[in-house]
Amino acid sequence: MMNYIWVIMIGISVIAGIFTGSISAVQDNLFSFADTAVEIALGLIGVMAFFSGLMKVMDEAGLCDKLGRALAPIMKHLFPGIPPEHPANSAIAMYVAASIMGLGNVCTPMGIKALQELQTLNKTKNIATDAQCMIMAISTSSICLLPTTTIALRSAVQTEGAAEIVGPTILVTILGATVCVIMTKLLGKLKAFDYNYLIERDRAAGQLKINEEYIGNDPLKL
Amino acid sequence: MSAILNFLSLYTVPIVVFVIPLYALIKKVPVYSSFVDGAKEGFDTAIMIIPYMVAMLCAIGMFRASGAMDWLVSALSPLTSMIGIPGEVLPMGIMRSFSGSGAQAMCAELLAQYGTTSQIGRIASVAMGSEETTFYVLAVYFGAVGITNSRQAVIAGLTADIASFVLAAIVVNLMWY
Questions:
Q1: Do B115 and A158 touch (CB under 8 A)?
Q2: Do A126 and B108 touch (CB under 8 A)?
């Protein structure tokens, strides 16, 4: 999927650039966004390191286990297949809490942490599991309940009524998240997106990448 | 409601950052060294996402400069105006899935030009707050674990973005017009 999207995006950009005469701007942006990508990633290092450190402290103090066990009844439904004592539970819970409170810069490290924990339940190195897709569904539909950025943008123009969009934004966000969760569940049933089908397809093509860090019961064999 | 949320976002992090190490200290965890160990992992993760970010952002940057957006807008605007979305908001709604900063700049422009309490301003604000930079999020999160086959995540994310954008217009139109 990403293969096609990536090539199509670049292809359209180059063709449109030639037709609209903006090809030099396309080239400029290619280089400047390569820089931006590195800047963003480097800018993440500090917060990322801090919260990974904090998560480690939590983990060693046994807090992750406790949180995971407390949340097990809910997690069981949203993310079937994660064992209750697995650290992914608490990582997901903290991620969801951070996004609901609109803690943008805490969200990214927590979301990454959740995906990394889930990776230990992934038989492959490169194919996303159902649980990982569900995390993406939650994050790509941004469950943030306080649109701080938009309120800031609005009050920069006019303070009066700057927050009037909070109600509709929350409503639309919840509806959008619901659409995303449903789509993820439904599309996951299609053969082309089926986890086990994709494993067999990669195996047939000789491209299967087995995850050595998989801790589940039925690891793949070549 | 927003007062409570404001309060939470102001106090949660500092309190959590104090309480967790304190609890760990009582549990006799070597707090400082385990923090540093964890922080090292965080550092590695941030480095690991660089290639994925470069791939994604270069494509997004080229797309933004190419003028392909105008094509997309003129192709889609007859459809969207039928369901009550003003054509002016469309570029921002599409940009939102690709680039947060790009959409933010466009939203600020719309707000300045049409006013915050105009139909355009309101739809832009709600769409800005409820859509997500799907491509960026996918690149960062899946990049951090080395996932290259994201299965249905892209389509589901984009469908949600489209749904949020359309719903933003419908909700605003119902509430105020």
A1: yes
A2: no
Spacing of C-alpha B135 from chain mean position: 9
Q: Is A189 exposed, middle or buried (0-12, 13-18, 19+ CB in 10 A)?
A: exposed
In a domain, B36, yes or no: no
- The reply to whether B52 falls in a domain is yes
The parent domain of residue B111 ranges over 48-176
Nearest-by-CA chain B residue for A154: B116
- Could you tell me which residues are beta bridge partners of residue B149? A127
* B133-172 tens-digit pLDDT: 888 888 889 988 999 999 999 999 999 999 999 999 999 9
Q: Would B32 be classed as within a structural domain?
A: no
Residues in CB range of A20: below 8 A, 6 or more apart: B66, B67, B70
- Lookup: tokens for A106: 């805490």
Quick one: tokens of B163? 């749904």
Q: What pLDDT, in 10s, does the model give residues B94-120?
A: 988 888 888 888 999 999 999 999 999
DSSP classification of residue B128: H
Q: Is B65 exposed, middle or buried (0-12, 13-18, 19+ CB in 10 A)?
A: buried
**B136 assigned to some structural domain:** yes
| Residue A161 binned pLDDT confidence (cut-offs 50, 70, 90) | confident
User: ipTM higher than 0.85?
Assistant: no
Cβ–Cβ under 8 Å, residues A114 and A93: no
Read off the DSSP letter of residue B105: H
Q: Chain B contacts of A147, Cβ < 8 Å?
A: 125, 128-130
To test the contact with chain A by mutation, choose from B43, B149, B155 the residue with the greatest count of A C-beta atoms within 10 A, namely: B149
Phi/psi of residue A189, nearest 5 degrees: -80, -20
pTM of the full predicted structure?
0.82
Count of the separate structural domains present in chain B: 1
Residue B76 CB partners (closer than 8 Å, separation 6+) = B90, B94
Domain boundaries, chain A: 44-205
Angle at A212 between CA A64 and CA A222, to 5 degrees: 145
